[in-house]
């Protein structure tokens, strides 16, 4: 998870050395965390085009691009779930406690849906992010483990999911 402090530090590092790969990678990762997947992909692709052939960053950048592109494709799908305009408007008028209860209910519903239909990589990604946004790191770690197992530990989808989880500081072996 790239925090605001880390983002500021990486920004300062890029001021000193605009080609610094670690700072470039994590600045792009912070874009992805903010839901700016297209901008993150563009940043990672720009980074990839300037990396030396023997750079150890190639694998991480390539995996991050693949994960973000998968998320973009899912977001463009008409089946992508999300609240309606009416639900968003109603949530804005709720008390904080009621809004939090509604969010917890939605996350629990997503978790249950994945227990019934676990072969949904985008669903697992949303669930992990949701748990982290709620401050429920243990539940996010559990979701990573369950998601990797459900997607098939050695599958490409599971590898992309593990890579995504790694960008958030989570591991399938925690």
Protein topology:
Elements: H1 4-16, H2 21-33, H3 37-50, H4 58-76, H5 85-92, H6 96-116, H7 121-133, H8 137-151, H9 156-167
Description:
The chain is mainly α and 174 residues long. It is 74% helix and 0% strand. The chain has helices spanning 4-16, 21-33, 37-50, 58-76, 85-92, 96-116, 121-133, 137-151, 156-167. Helix 2 runs antiparallel to helix 3 (37-50), helix 3 runs antiparallel to helix 4 (58-76) and helix 8 (137-151) packs antiparallel against helix 9 (156-167). The model has no long low-confidence stretch (mean pLDDT 85).
In short:
This protein is an all-alpha fold and 174 residues long. The chain has helices spanning 4-16, 21-33, 37-50, 58-76, 85-92, 96-116, 121-133, 137-151, 156-167. It is built from 9 helices and no strands.
Figure out the total of helices.
9
Described by strand count, sense and barrel closure, the largest sheet is:
none
Low-confidence stretches: none
Instruction: Determine the mean pLDDT.
Output: 85
Q: What is the count of β-strands? A: 0
> How many whole angstroms does the radius of gyration measure?
17 Å
Helix content: over 70%
Distance separating the two termini: 16 Å
The helix/strand order is HHHHHHHHH
Give me some keywords for this one:
174 residues; mainly alpha; 9 helices; 74% helix; 0% strand; globular
């Amino acid at each position: 998870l790239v925090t605001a402090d880390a983002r500021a530090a990486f920004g300062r590092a890029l001021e000193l050395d605009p080609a610094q790969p670690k700072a470039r990678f994590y600045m792009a990762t912070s874009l992805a965390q903010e839901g700016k997947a297209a901008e993150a992909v563009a940043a990672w692709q720009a980074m990839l085009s300037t990396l030396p052939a023997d750079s150890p960053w190639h694998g991480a950048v390539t995996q991050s691009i693949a994960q973000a592109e998968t998320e973009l494709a899912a977001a463009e799908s008409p089946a992508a779930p999300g609240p309606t305009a009416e639900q968003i408007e109603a949530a804005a008028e709720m008390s904080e406690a009621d809004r939090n209860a509604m969010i917890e209910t939605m996350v629990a519903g997503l978790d249950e849906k994945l227990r019934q239909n676990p072969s949904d990589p985008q669903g697992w990604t949303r669930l992990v992010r949701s748990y982290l946004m709620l401050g429920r790191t243990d539940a996010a770690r559990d979701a990573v483990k369950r998601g990797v197992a459900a997607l098939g530990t050695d599958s490409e989808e599971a590898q992309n999911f593990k890579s995504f989880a790694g960008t958030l500081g989570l591991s399938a072996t925690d």
